[in-house]
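Run histidine kinase through structure prediction, thanks.
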Amino acid sequence: MPTPPFAQLLRQLPAGVATLEGAELRFGFVNEAMRELVGAHSEGKPLAEHRGSLPESLPGVLSQVLASGKPYTAKACACGPLPGSKDCRYFDLAAEPYHDDRGRVTGLLLLALDVTAQEEARQQAHELALTTRHLDARLRVLTETAPLISFSLDAGGRVTYVSPQWYRFTGQPPTADLTAIWPLLIHPDDRLRVLYQAEAARHAGTGWNHEYRLRRFDGQYRWMLSRALPEVHLPDPPVFWHGALTEIHDQREVAEALRRGEAELRFLADSIPELIWTANAHGLIDYYNQYTTAYSGLTKDELGPTGWVSLLYPEEQPAAARAWVESVTHGTTFEGEYRMRRHDGVYRWHVVRARLLADASGPRWFGACTDIDEHYRLHQVLQTQYDELARAHHDLDTFVYAASHDLKQPTLNLRGLFHELSQAATFHDPDQAVMLRLVDDELSTLEHTLRDLAATVRSQRAQQEPVEVLDLELLLEEVLLGLRPQILHGNAEVEINVTEAPGLLYSRANLRSVAHNLVSNALKFAHPDRPARITLRSYLTPDDHQPVLEVRDNGLGMELDNPDNPTFQLFARQHTHIEGTGVGLYLVQRIVRSQGGHLTVSSTPGEGTTFTIYWTRPE
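Sure, done. The structure for histidine kinase is below.
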């Protein structure tokens, strides 16, 4: 087979080949690969004028190469963009001087080898190396600033890396042999377990997650959580384990305290002689104390999630279940009294209470069933006795009212007979006038006593009357109008000042009785040396705006043991020289207290008295 000519071989080379002749570096021979760089029809043209895609600085460099006669090579020169391409390509350029027969440099042989793929791979490798260094630096910053100790181990258990936190925590010098010193810092009670678990995990090619105590720089052992995972490159077995040590000492202590607290609470709940239970947010019971099982005779599984409802009296279960569902739905406190079946079949009364606790762990219900059977039955007995006493009291009031009413007529008859007797009959007794006056006084006392007894019973019955908003000034004017004869006879001055609190929510009959008794007492017990001056004033207390009525006089006054909480007894009197029965103040105090108010008195004998009535505050 004939050998192709040398020029033909050069033309077919994948590398660009060209000859540059003379000082002007004119193109001589140019193969096909070089034509892509310098363009077609480049033969005979100077390099400077027909550079094509070659670097701009190449003609000047090649001129120096021609002058020096020394070969030159440029690696990965950017050329382009080439025709038909938008991107540059990279070539290794080599310039080799060639000589004539006398040894003179007459030109250059220019070679261009396309190394675009290699250059792009090198650049990518460089960028990857930079990215890797950045990530490595970032990872080191993260591992060395995080509040944990990072470490790496090989398959043999040797420590290949540990973060600076290790040295700060343990106080060990950087020159310490980590593989040898690490096991010695583990608590003796944990050392064997930790070493065995770590070695077993390395042999199995798995990670680990365990807790142990590690000695700190101050000699204290602190609980640590050790986690590690293998670095896997399938199908080869792992050769490195990377992990972290996190201090969990405080969390362990808190968890232990919570565990002890929960155990103590359960012990306390089991010690209480009540049915204690807890339920989830849906109202399903998930805990019963021991007393519940002992009382019911059922196990916790037998009681189930609605155990206390199933223990109720059958007729009470539907209403209790509906009330419990409503409380769970709205999150309101549940409370009710029900009969609960004991293990022997006896039903005993209980108060069932449950409250909702909503915290970070979620809503939960806490309930208790308290045995009130004895209290309930005692309450029934007391209620029965109270009803009997109420009937007896009512009967007594009826008797007193009837007796006082029935005795009025005989009293009037005695008054008439005595009047006729005193006018028509004569006595030969020197004490006739005294005896007649004494009999007249006793008849008057009897009349007042019967009238006051009837008023007492009427006041008791009037306490049940409905309340209404009263015009205080108008009602007080009506009371003064009824007492006008006494006011005129005593030349008294009465002042009414109700501008601060003109209205009062109260029973009309009760308020009239209170005002009438206080004003009539002030007129009755006026000082003999001066006219009576009475002031009626109403106002609201500054703190809670409670309505107040103040009645002040300048009369005889009285002596009191407890002015802030006085007690006026029926028929008790301080000024016996003045006609009276001692019923008025008793009635006032009884009416005020029965309506939820209270009475205070300030008095100075010989100067006057001030009654202050604190009514119930209207809603």
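Residues 381-454 form one domain.
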